[in-house]
Specification:
This protein is an all-alpha fold and about 180 residues long. Helix content is about 65%, strand content about 0%. The protein has one domain. Strands 1-2 form a two-stranded antiparallel ribbon.
């Protein structure tokens, strides 16, 4: 009798606790920049490579359901890609010459595709979350997304022109926590 009462109380508590508040599930683990970089190899396939990085571990069929924790991780990773461009690629290109400089430039374009794919995805998630919450999506939010997509298309086109050309990555860690 006593064990059945304890079991009943435990069951009621566990059902109450699990149903009391939505769970903010985390699907992602923060990657250091070097672990997500697509800049090595050859040019020409950055679009697919970037999509593979940004889509890994996420259910993109419902952007509004992506957790805030995962969105925070995506924002840090995108920031790392941007910082790799300004803090590692640009100085490396400035000091390189010849084939090395050319390969770094191809790698930088691939990194721009990575960065802008992430930025567009983050902006799409933000818009989806606002719409799901019944909030108005501002014209500036829509314009920012359009700007990201325009820049992304330009850099994808440049990468495709670099198809088969050597591409060189830079060593950059970036922020390692959210």
């Amino acid at each position: 009798m006593r064990s059945s009462v304890i079991f009943t109380v435990f069951t009621v508590l566990s059902v109450t606790l699990t149903g009391a508040a939505p769970i903010n599930r985390r699907a992602l683990t923060l990657l250091a920049y070097n672990d997500m970089s697509i800049s090595s190899g050859v040019g020409g396939n950055a679009e697919a490579e970037a999509k593979a990085v940004w889509e890994a571990g996420l259910d993109l069929s419902n952007l509004a359901a992506i957790s805030d924790a995962d969105l925070d991780i995506l924002k840090v990773e995108r920031s790392n890609a941007e910082n790799a461009e300004t803090e590692a690629f640009n100085p490396a290109i400035d000091t390189a010459s010849g084939a090395d400089a050319d390969a770094l430039q191809v790698g930088k374009i691939k990194n721009k595709v990575l960065k802008l794919t992430g930025l567009a995805q983050i902006r799409q998630i933000g818009i989806a979350k606002k719409e799901a919450a019944g909030q108005t999506v501002s014209a500036s939010d829509k314009a920012a997304l359009d700007d990201s997509l325009t820049k992304l298309a330009k850099n994808i086109a440049t990468d495709k022109k670099n198809a088969g050309k050597a591409s060189k990555a830079v060593d950059f860690v970036g922020q390692t926590s959210v």
